[in-house]
Design a protein that fits this description.
The chain is an alpha/beta fold and 247 residues long. The protein has 7 helices and 7 strands; from the N terminus they run E-H-E-H-E-H-E-H-E-H-E-H-H-E. A 7-stranded parallel beta sheet has the order 3-2-1-4-5-6-7, sandwiched between helices. The structure holds NADPH dihydro-nicotinamide-adenine-dinucleotide phosphate. Belongs to the short-chain dehydrogenases/reductases (SDR) family.
Amino acid sequence: MTSSVENKVVAITGASSGIGAATALELAGRGAAVVLGARRTDRLDSLVARIRDGGGRAEMLPVDVTERTDLERMVALAVRRFGRLDVLVSNAGVARIAPVADLDVDDWNAMIDVNLRGVLHGIAAALPVFRRQGHGHLVTTVSTSGLKIVPAQAVYAGTKNAVRTLLEALRQESTDGVLRTTAISPGFVRTELVDHVADPGQRDQAQQAMAALGISPDAVARAIAFAIEQPDDVEIGDLTIRPARQG
Ligand code: NDP
């Protein structure tokens, strides 16, 4: 069995910046058709133009992953425009890190809504299409935060580990060869992720760690491409990509 990135149809959530944007460029550069979703459509427009200028195939649409129907529209666009959906990269995420005792309940809910419910919405939209086609690949961006528990990341890590659990159960439920699942666990990656942390102390600390240690989002994009390009009967279940100097 052979497989590659070329000619795969890949939908990516959270494609407007960071890992999602890098993945869009990496996969489109290798000949995939990409469907890009996020809320900042100006960023998506620029990315689509850049990919098309380079001879690639890309479409975009506004997607808020907390809205189930947005994921349905994303999957439908892939099928309508490119004939099928081979891979869904559920990458959209927020990291509102803070100690639990700060009781930032709105931030807890935002992380649950985007990082967990958003992935579930993607599964609900893509799985029927994967089953109808007889193949499909679900890639999610989880985190090393779920592997090494540290203060101030409890809810964030909890959402990422919930997704890890979800994927493992889904994998065991899908041993008929229709579905492949991959959990990508990045460590510190230089993106905008921690710029949205509300608490200035936590934000400074996280931004400093990113600046000191963070690797390029291109490294994660290459790991996602590696998982996707495997032969159809090979599933890369878990991949951790972290800075060599990360503790
Ligand atoms: P960015 O902040 O650059 O990217 C986050 C992406 O998620 C953006 O494209 C943003 O788009 C999108 N997003 C946020 N909320 C929503 C929403 N409600 N609906 C749709 N899209 C949304 O950070 P990263 O690239 O670093 O993050 C990508 C993933 O990688 C996340 O899941 C993150 O948890 C994970 N990760 C990152 C690490 C790092 O060190 N950077 C480490 C481990 C995991 P928009 O605002 O336009 O909607």
